[in-house]
Write a structure and sequence with these properties.
253 residues; 10 helices; 68% helix; membrane; transmembrane; transmembrane helix
Amino acid sequence: MAYVKSSSPLPLPAHHSKDCMSAATKRYKYMRRMFKFNQMDFEFALWQLVYLFIAPQKVYRNFQYRKQTKSQFARDDPAFLVLLSFWLFFTSIGFAIVLDLTFFRFVIFLLYVIFVDCIGAGLLIATIFWYISNKYFRQSTDQDVEWAYTFDVHLNAFFPPLTILHFCLLFFYTGLIGDHSKFLIIGNTLWLIAACYYIYITFLGFSSLRFLQHTQVILLSLPIVIFIYIFTLITQFNITRALHRFYVLRVLP
């Protein structure tokens, strides 16, 4: 298989070869490397995290490169997942401090964030997009969308909202859960930005697959999100305060 030069400014993965492996072999290799940090390309994964903020479209150029070299779009290196898990843990500590949680409640909060907000929601969203993309977006039956790739798209789209809502938002949290209208606008706007990031990066993930069509349908959710944002400002509905109450109720014994 011939190599195609990538135009992305991201560094190329450290581990790549021309050999094509079966799906079962790829899954086994991925799981086997999950706890072997010396075999992970953390530099490449860190570059992806950075570019998901400043130029997410360039991240998917490297997914195209992976398809050309390894016959799969999905990641074969768990380094990105490890860094995302670490960042999720770190931001959850910040939330626990702001919410003044005990250690026991922090553990409950962390388990909810990891297994419900990230993984649970990700499994559901990935499965829905996997079904829709293969059922309605494919131009032919010669290729199909890998479920693992749809989950990777979710993880990509999840990182910017996680940083905005679980890190940046913490610096204004005391004011955001109050009654001041200025902070309400700031908080709700951060939620709008996070939602737009998630939708746009998800769109990029599927539009980058050349055998799919009509992926722009995903962007139709943007006007809905903007309408909800305007509605919250008109009704003075504080999204951050509602989330605060939800988080507190979730960790109560």
